[in-house]
Amino acid sequence: MKKLLALVATLTLVFSLAACGGGDDGEFAENPEIVGIESGAGIMAATNTAIEEYGLEMELLTSSGPAMVSALGDAIENEEWIVVTGWSPHYKFANYDLKYLEDSKGVYGDVENLHTIARSGLRSDDPKLTTFLEDFYMTSNELGGLMGDIASSDDDTLEVARTWASNNEDVWSEWFPAGGLDGEDEEIEIAYVNWAEGVAMTHLVQALLIDEANYSVELTMADAGPIFSGVSDGSIDFFLDAWLPVTHESYEETYGEDYEDLGFNFEGARIGLVVPTYVDIDSIAELNDYVN
Ligand code: PBE
Fold first, then answer.
1. pLDDT average per 10 residues of sequence, the chain (292 residues)
2. For residues 249 and 135, what is the distance between their CA atoms, to the nearest angstrom?
3. Among 37, 45, 86, 196, which residue has the fewest nearby CB atoms (within 10 Å)?
4. How far is residue 251 from each of residues 45, 145, 201, 224, 267, measured CA to CA in Å?
C-alpha cells in the first residue's frame, strides 16, 4: 500500500511538473489574476497596457494598497503563486522576500521621483510654508523607517509619526525656514491616497505642522484623480505623493498648468509587477506560461 501511495505521489509530481509551462494546471490556476490597487493609480493604467503589450491572459483586480498587501501576505503564508502591482518605496520589501518581474517592453518606465505639488496660490498666501514644502525631502532609509513603524504599529498613524519625529529631529529641523514657521492657527487641507509612502509622509508633515508650526491641519483621503483636480482648483493646499515623470503623467498633462510643482521629496521610486521570490519566473513575458 505504501509503495502504491509513493507511486501515485511520484506520478502526481511528474504530471504537475509537466503541467508547468502551458498545461491545464498552471501555477497561477488558483489565482489567474494580477492583484491591483485603486483604479485611479498610474500603476493600474500601466498594468492594463502591460496586459495588452504582453498579451497576458490574466485579469487585473481593482482593490486598494492595503488589500493588495494583505493578499500578498496570505499567499506567502500558503506559498501560493501571486503577482501584484508593486512599487517602491514600500514596506512590503522589508517584510517579505519579493522581486520585480523584468519588463523588457519598458511598460512601467524607469526610476522616477515623488513630487510635492501645491495649489497655485499657496506660494503668495504662505511663502514660508511653501519653502518648508520645497525643503521637505526624505531618504530611502528615513522614509522606509517611518513606513515600517506605521505598518508594524496598531497605534494611530499620527501618533506613530509624532514618535518618529521626536526621534528624528535632525532630519526635519532642516526643512524649517530660518526663524521658524508659525501658521497662526491657519487651516491647511492636505490630501493623500491610501498608499503607504504617502500615508507616512503626509502624517509626518501633519504632525510637524501642528506640533512645531501652529497650523490646524485637515487630512482627506481620496483617489488620485480627485486629488489632482482638487490641488488644481485650489480646494486642496498640497499633495506629497505625485509620481513623475511616468506614473502620474496623465494627471500632469491634464492638470499640470493649474498647480505648482514644488520639486521632488524622494528619489528613486519604481513601479512594476512584483512576485514573492519563490515564484519561479523572472519576467512578465513568462507569466502566460503558468496560467491555465
Ligand atoms: N503607486 C504609489 C501610485 C503612486 C504611489 C505607485 C501605487 C500609482 O500607481 O499611481
1. 49 41 57 91 97 96 95 94 95 93 96 97 97 97 95 97 98 94 97 96 98 98 97 98 95 98 97 96 94 78
2. 23
3. 45
4. 12, 29, 21, 9, 20
pLDDT at residue 27, rounded to an integer: 83
- Residue 16's pLDDT is what? 40
* Closest residue to atom 4 of ligand 1, CA basis: 243
Ligand 1 pocket, 42 CB below 6 A? yes
Indicate the top mutation candidate among 38, 88, 100, 247 to test ligand 1's pocket, ranked by most ligand atoms within 8 A of CB: 247
**Is 37 a pocket residue for ligand 1 (Cβ < 6 Å)?**
yes
Q: Is the CB of 190 within 6 Å of ligand 1?
A: no
Helix 157-167 × helix 140-152 angle, to 10°: 140
- From ligand 1's centre to the CA of 65, what distance in Å? 9
pLDDT of residue 290: 87
Q: Ligand 1, closest atom to CA 65? A: 7
Looking at residue 31, what is its pLDDT? Answer: 63
> Is 290:81 a contact under the CB 8 Å cutoff?
yes
pLDDT for 24? 43
Say yes or no: CB of residue 260 within 6 Å of ligand 1: no
Say if residues 204 and 146 touch (Cβ distance below 8 Å).
Answer: yes
59, 85 Cβ separation under 8 angstroms: no
Residue 228 CB less than 6 A away from ligand 1: no
**pTM for the predicted model, two decimal places:** 0.85
Q: Is 227 in the pocket of ligand 1 (CB under 6 A)?
A: no
CB distance 265 to ligand 1 below 6 Å: no
Please state, in angstroms and rounded to a whole number, the distance separating the CA atoms of residues 225 and 185: 29
Whole-angstrom distance, CA of residue 171 vs CA of residue 265: 13
